Amino acid sequence: VNNSFGSSLIADGVMYLAGSLDTGHLRLSTVGNLMTLQWQNILFKSLMLDADITKDTIVLNNFSSATAEGGILTASGTKKGDALAFDAMVAKLPIDAFMSYLGQTGKGLLSGAFKVSGTEDSPNVSGKFSLENGEIFGQEINEAHGFAGWENHVLSFKRVEAYMKQGSHKVGGTVNMQADEPVFDLQVDTENVRIEPLAAFAGSPFPITGNLTNNMRISGPMSNPRIRGKVHAWYGSVHGFLVDDVKGDYSLAGGTLALQNFYIHTLTSSVKMDGTMDARGNLDFGIEAKDVHLARIPLINEYAEFDGAFDFSGSVKGTKHNPLFNGVVTSNSISVNK
Fold this sequence. Notes:
By secondary structure, the protein is mainly beta. The chain has helices at 96-101, 196-202; strands spanning 9-12, 15-20, 25-30, 35-39, 42-53, 57-67, 72-80, 83-94, 106-118, 123-136, 139-151, 154-164, 168-176, 183-194, 208-221, 226-238, 241-253, 256-265, 270-277, 283-293, 306-318, 323-336. 4% of the residues lie in helices and 69% in strands. It is elongated, with a radius of gyration of 28 Å.
């Protein structure tokens, strides 16, 4: 049987149908627990079904089934005309088939209680959930739980918490899908997670390692989001360059990135930055740098062999592809190709 999920349902078993077409009432039920139903790679066995059907109403008195892996799915409710009113409960249901339907890869065991309302053309689904031993978008999740809802094309999150192998993410707010593009109103709090899987998911062009805590507020449309946050990363590296500590405030609005009280500490050096980079890549930063070792700056030694250390106080303007430094450099000793 083809269905709206873009795949097929395969049913195998015995159904019992009783009633009269004259009275417009039919009762549909399974015989024993011999029926099975397969969707994608999930096999529902021991399926039990009891429903009453009239001209414009379907009353689902009972639907229950178990997966081969021990998951459970139960549901009951009504469909009157186009209106939906159902309650469903799942326990340890594998999510890989649903991720495949969304065009993604993932795994985990989902449990929760959900309400389905709205209409066939615009269903609403909401409820509390938990996820165990998950992996979504390449991020391994030990356990996650919270409340999620989809109503009138608005996705909402309340007290959603995901605990990774190290650290956690907490999400609350909404994503409004009613317009041509998503509109965000989200608070995302990340605490003590590893940076590597996030860098890989974001498609970083060079390796980044370390630990990350980040608190940010995201609002506005996807094409022009407004982001404000505070970040702290430590004991890591960027493109092989060791970084002990990075922290500061940041914001993004109208395509302009702003950094405030931004500190970078390495084993020997320290840098304080304040300023902006606009959507065209134009730079306007003030920098105070102490004890910067030339030999440890990424890429600089591709042009010549530098050695020594210096302090810098001044500004960086120009563009990200052609930065212009203006300020005072002091050093006891610098050597080139020595």
